[in-house]
Amino acid sequence: MQQPETFEKKHSPRLDQALADARAQADATLFRLPPRSARRMLHCPCGDGQLGRRWMDEGVDQVIGIEPCAESAEKARAVLPEVFQGDIETLSLPYGPESFDCILLDDILPRLRDPRRFLERIVPLLTPSGLLIASVPNLQFYSSVQMLAEGRVEYATDGVWARDHIRFYTGHELLRLFWDAGLPVARLIGLTVLPPEVLPLNNERCLPLGKVTLGPLDDGEYQAFRTERYAVLGASIDERSAK
């Protein structure tokens, strides 16, 4: 039987540091997106509740959590006013229409069997002026394209190749999901974006990625390959909050 080829990983300390910096900036940007004027916010999944607690410390009246992991949900209950644990797609919430001023779906859409139906079910919980925020990893990120060109996939605990992901999104597909669900989109934001100097184009505006070269690329295409994670905003938002 033929053995699979072993691929040697090539690490660039400069690129690794740039990615770590971009991820830190992404976390800071995501924290600033929900309006502090919100009376009640829904965070799904809420993890251990620490992020929700920070929002409450910054002025949000209540952050309600949904968390599929029982251990994390138990930790979150110590810091949030209410936490529901279970299957996010089937969990029944004791809230009627227009109960939340903001709903944050934090990298949960790739884990859902029917994300469109889930959106259609959860959106009525927003107030008329409410904000829906969803973040997802980007399948078009350069490292995914490079891996596939080399005939390999490296699964991980998070990111686009997390082992429990059953849906995959590019920026275009994320917008189409919202469009198909009948949701107006205010903005698509690149949360984790590598700077051009660590992933430069050549003189023909092409991007060399190991066994493949992409391009020529326009500015939008180039940024898409440098974007590891997106956030989509399903309502108007103050431009200053995302800067």
Q: How would you portray this structure in words?
A:
By secondary structure, this protein is an alpha/beta fold. The protein has a domain at 13-138 and 162-192 and 227-236: Rossmann fold (3-Layer(aba) Sandwich), CATH 3.40.50.150. Helix content is 28%, strand content 22%. The protein contains seven helices and nine strands. The strands form two sheets. It has a seven-stranded mixed beta sheet with strand order 3-2-1-4-5-9-6, sandwiched between helices. It is elongated. It starts with 12 loop residues before the first helix and ends in a 10-residue tail after the last strand. 32% of the residues are buried. Residues 236-243 have low confidence and may be disordered.
Task: From the structure above, extract its key features.
alpha/beta; disordered C terminus; 7-stranded mixed sheet; elongated; 243 residues; Rossmann fold; 7 helices; two-stranded antiparallel ribbon
* Percent helix range: 25-40%
Could you state the CATH homologous superfamily of the domain at 13-138 and 162-192 and 227-236? Answer: Vaccinia Virus protein VP39
What is the ordering of alpha helices and beta strands? HEHEHEEHEHHEEEHE
CATH topology name of the domain at 13-138 and 162-192 and 227-236, in short, is Rossmann fold
Number of strands: 9
Indicate the CATH architecture of the domain at 13-138 and 162-192 and 227-236: 3-Layer(aba) Sandwich
User: Helices and strands: which structural class?
Assistant: alpha/beta
The largest sheet has its strands arranged as: 3-2-1-4-5-9-6
Low-confidence segments, ≥5 residues, pLDDT <50?
236-243
How would you sum up the global shape? elongated
Overall CATH class of the domain at 13-138 and 162-192 and 227-236: Alpha Beta
Give the terminus-to-terminus CA distance.
55 Å
What is the helix tally? 7
Estimated share of beta-strand residues: 15-25%
Mean pLDDT, rounded to whole units?
Answer: 90
Radius of gyration: 19 Å
How would a textbook summarize the main sheet? 7 strands, mixed
